[in-house]
Amino acid sequence: MIAHEVRTHAPGADLPREEQLAWKLAAVAADPVPVGREVAEMIGNRAVDNAAVAAASLARGPVANARAQALAHRYAPGAAVFGAGPDTRVSPEWAAWANGVAVRELDFHDTFLAADYSHPGDNIPPILAVAQHRGLDGRALVRGIAAGYEVQVDLVRGICLHEHRIDHVAHLGPAAAAGIGALLGLAPEVIHQAIGQALHTTTATRQSRKGAISSWKAYAPAFAGKAAVEAVDRAMRGEGAPSPIYEGEDGVVARLLGGPDAVYEVPLPERGEAKRAILDTYTKEHSAEYQSQALIDLARRMSPRIGDLSRVREVLVRTSHHTHNVIGTGANDPQKTDPDASRETLDHSIMYIVAVALEDRAWHHERSYTSERAHRPSTVALWRKVRTVEDPEWTKRYHDPDPAERAFGGRVEVTMDDGEVIADELAVADAHPSGARPFAREQYTAKFRALADGVIAEAEQDRFLDLAHRIEALSASEVRALNLAAIRLAEPTTKGLF
Q: What protein family does this chain belong to (predicted)?
């Protein structure tokens, strides 16, 4: 890997194209280095993971609405829409939109945390949609997905967006454009313009994940994927982007991030180096914000030792800066302790999550979020006894350069009414690669079976798993069949323009 310095360029001076970050990202995408077997297998696992959480969300309102919008844009050859039949094809940008919302709705797929946050599995819907539309095979699809993951993960390693209140999809837009460019085998000149356009159109504030969080949290990455497809289309037609998009006097670094004097370092593979970033990412066992995963496991482990939860005086969670300020009391969001809060808000409230996990000793993507569950008097009482503090040691571990030492958990100290303190800590979730029960193909398949049960017929599940498990070897016709047909599809309850 080579660390590339990114800073604002002097006003009036010309920054050569080859020195611009967007060009360097494009060069990585265009590098035809083979995809390794281990990476290809993990891409298959993540295709299964995405399909699992999409299946579980098909009946939810935001997903039904996004699907209805997509189905209003039928197109041939087009791309498939999750849940719809095999003959239903829509324009690829709308397939990316509908499938992106389905994948993201339950906050239940893969993650990568470093200088910033990300869900790199969001790259798969737009890249797969273009592959289906253009009739490309599994080898091309895997090449594109590997590139999308590489670009997003490397941006997340080097550039922090959230400290400037910029939403993390600003890294997804360029990554998806790069992945589509790699899929199509485009020249770096074309990918460069697509990356610039995608970044320019997908840079938004973090208010989508603050305060009263709405369904836009699921729509935001789908919007980025859709924008990336459209950006590639324009770039292929010869249309250009603002340049230099990162380093310009009025570019992203100068005006939206650290300012004219800021310096970032983005690590990227050198030419000929394999794109392996997907292997540094990890999925979720629980449907909640990733930084709660280890704390859910910890709460389940601690609950039997605590016993009578009505005797709890206080629950103190010592954790990282990110966890405290994003999903903890450091966010200063009153909605995070409100029983009437949206599901999207509750899955970003570690106070609620710890209280429910202590009570139920389990977590479920639906039952843990019902209105009745959130309003249970014992839960509300316990919930409001939970607070978080930043612990410098946990912040340091969160950013540890050694993946084996990096930690996303915390220490929980439960003070009882008689002053007894019951404490325990957990560095990473059980499902994390360094955890007690790391996810492998068996666990991805089990997650898929559990979430698709009653939604996707068993024979259809079998068909999809067969394709996903040999994703790199798929023919073009098999890539077009990499989709799920639901037993039944929910219709939207309201109508829009389409």
A: Belongs to the PrpD family.
User: Contact 26/192 with Cβ under 8 angstroms?
Assistant: yes
In contact, 467 and 137? CB cutoff 8 Å = no
What's at 424, amino acid-wise?
Answer: D
Chain Cα centroid distance, residue 279: 15
How far is it, in rounded angstroms, from Cα 395 to Cα 479?
42
User: What whole-number percentage of the chain has pLDDT above 70?
Assistant: 100
Strands 74-79 and 90-90: antiparallel
Report the C-alpha gap between 32 and 18 in whole angstroms.
Answer: 18
Report which residue type is found at 444.
Y
Say which range, 9-13, 70-74, 343-347, has the weakest mean pLDDT: 9-13
**DSSP-assigned letter for residue 292:** G
Q: In the sheet that 410-416 helps form, which strands lie side by side, from edge to edge? A: 386-390, 312-319, 410-416, 421-426
With bands split at pLDDT 50, 70 and 90, how would you rate the model's confidence at 13?
confident
Residue 454: left if φ>0, alpha if ψ -120 to 50, beta else—which one? left
pLDDT at position 403, please?
82
pLDDT at 212: 78
Tokens read off for 149: 């993951």
Q: Is 462 exposed, middle or buried (0-12, 13-18, 19+ CB in 10 A)?
A: exposed
How many angstroms separate the CA atoms of 266 and 5, rounded? 7
DSSP letter, residue 249: T
Q: Which domains does the chain have, with CATH numbers?
A: 2-280 (1.10.4100.10), 290-426 (3.30.1330.120)
* Residue 10 region by backbone torsions, left for phi larger than 0, else alpha for psi between -120 and 50, else beta: beta
pLDDT at 12 over 80: no
Query: How many Å apart are CA 107 and CA 96, to the nearest integer?
Result: 17
Task: State yes or no: cis peptide before 244, omega within 30 of 0.
Answer: yes
pLDDT of residue 404: 82
Residue 467: both structure tokens together: 């394709």
Question: Are the C-beta atoms of 89 and 78 separated by less than 8 Å?
Answer: yes
For residue 284, pLDDT over 80 is answered with yes
The pTM of the whole model exceeds 0.85: yes
